[in-house]
Amino acid sequence: MIRRVAYKKAIIAGALGAAAWEVVIRGLIGAGVPMFDLVRTLGTMVLGPDAGVWEWWPVGLAMHALVGAIWAVFYAYFFWTLFDCPRVVQGLIFSLLPALLAGLIMVPQMDLMSEAVLSGSMPRKSFFAIGVGWGGPAAIVLGHIVFGLVLGYLYRDPVGYPAGERILKYG
Q1: In 3D, which of 106, 104, 81 has the Cα closest to residue 94?
Q2: C-alpha distances out from residue 47 to 6, 38, 123, Å
Q3: Which pLDDT value is given to residue 115?
Q4: What confidence score (pLDDT) does residue 121 get?
Q5: What number of other Cβ atoms are within 10 A of residue 9's Cβ?
Q6: Are 70 and 12 in contact (CB under 8 A)?
Q7: For the whole prediction, is pTM greater than 0.90?
Q8: Where are the domains of the chain?
């Protein structure tokens, strides 16, 4: 079966989903809620623990947007129209997969890659960022929910027909 994917739409939807995640989580952090700060973790992982906010924030956000775009292409190719439900719900269901993988694999791996964590200047986050407290798992789940809702909302009817339907050629 040949699938048609609107790559540009998927990439934009994924990057905007990651940006929406950052807006929600950054707002909660600004309000004093002890959430896991993925963008800071990514940015300081690249630039080091002494990087200022105007250094680590754009780098971390760019990395997160890139990952969001990659997941969105995966969603568009393998998942779009898989279920007979509203696209927003489908995006939400899809977001459970990257949430699970992030909590079980990526966050613990970032602990092993972060100079700040290895030097002891930042605490270990562990599985689902539980080392941050209740805000660790909450940020991962909430962030992925926001990502999935935005992805499902933006990536809809990208090519004009659901996957699995035949294209009728005339002539």
Answers
A1: 81
A2: 34, 14, 17
A3: 81
A4: 80
A5: 17
A6: no
A7: no
A8: 30-154
**CA atoms of 99 and 116, how far apart (whole Å):** 24
Helix axes 38-47, 135-154, angle to 10 degrees: 100
CA nearest neighbour of 161 among 42, 6, 49? 6
End-to-end CA distance of the chain: 22
Q: What is residue 39's predicted lDDT score, i.e. its pLDDT?
A: 96
Q: What's the CA gap between 22 and 28, in Å, rounded?
A: 10
Residue with tokens 């991962």: 140
Q: How far apart are CA 125 and CA 8, in angstroms?
A: 34
Q: Using CB atoms within 10 A of its CB, is residue 79 exposed (0-12), middle (13-18) or buried (19+)?
A: buried
Q: Rounded to whole angstroms, how far apart are CA atoms 118 and 121?
A: 8
Average pLDDT, the chain: 90
| pLDDT confidence tier of residue 57, bands split at 50, 70 and 90 | very high
Q: Six-digit token pair at 68?
A: 């969001």
Sequence letter at residue 15:
A
Q: Which two tokens stand for residue 108?
A: 């613990």
The helices-and-strands tally (H runs, E runs) of the chain is 7, 0
Q: Per this entry, what is the length of the chain? A: 171
Q: Which two tokens stand for residue 102?
A: 């992030």
